[in-house]
Write a structure and sequence with these properties.
Elements (H helix, E strand, L loop, with lengths): L3 H16 L3 H13 L1 H23 L2 H7 L1 H24 L18 H13 L2 H10 L11 H34 L3 H24 L6
């Protein structure tokens, strides 16, 4: 089973990689700016669930199939990238709907369940998540020991916890910025535009980065 040295080494490596803003961080920030804290936090939770699914797939051996299948990898990534671009376009189209009322409450423009699904899609189509779970995590598993799948799952739980904490901090910070910006209709429109452009840029980035063969 895992020893303390393995666990701490993996936690340190995961924290360093996660600290570098990637698709999940940009998505959380975009949702916080465009829709507020509630939507952003739902997206963060959805992202964590998607990351956990990747961990489970690797733990039961299906991760090896994804690692070997170039076509499957690119199909998943293309679908995720296209979905992000679609969300960005929708945010820009409805930019005038963003903003808070005079009491500073957040508009319920996106349901909690829908935000969860969106965060989930970002996680499973995120090359950074795939690399972390399928390439980095197994390097810290003791292959000579028993219960390989359980080791992967335990390290994955640490990974998901770190990612959840990091994305939460980014989302809350961005939500504070949104509160300040959304005090006027013009600023509210700006929120939607910034969030939408960010998501379109994120979709393009996901489509053209994270080469599977490298």
């Amino acid at each position: 089973m895992l020893n303390l040295q393995q666990t701490l080494a993996f936690a340190a490596a995961a924290a360093i990689i996660i600290a570098i803003p990637g698709p999940s961080v940009v998505f959380a920030i975009s949702r916080a700016i465009a829709h507020g804290r509630r939507t952003a936090m739902a997206s963060v939770v959805g992202n964590a669930v998607g990351l956990l699914l990747l961990v489970v797939l690797v733990a039961v051996g299906l991760g090896a199939l994804l690692a070997r299948s170039e076509m499957l990898f690119w199909v998943i990534k293309a679908l995720g990238a296209g979905y992000l671009v679609y969300l960005g376009i929708q945010a820009i189209r409805h930019r005038h709907d963003f903003g808070a009322d005079s009491q500073g409450s957040e508009p319920a423009t996106i349901s909690w369940s829908k935000s969860l699904r969106q965060g989930f899609v970002v996680a499973v189509s995120n090359p950074k998540s795939f690399i972390l779970v399928a390439a980095v995590l197994p390097q810290f598993v003791d292959r000579g020991a028993e219960q390989f799948g359980l080791q992967v799952f335990l390290l994955g739980a640490i990974l998901v916890s770190i990612a959840l904490a990091s994305d939460t901090v980014w989302a809350l910070l961005a939500a504070r910025l949104r509160t300040w910006l959304s005090r006027s209709p013009r600023r509210g429109s700006l929120l939607g535009t910034v969030g939408g452009v960010s998501m379109i840029g994120l979709g393009v980035s996901v489509a053209f980065t994270g080469n599977h063969s490298k």
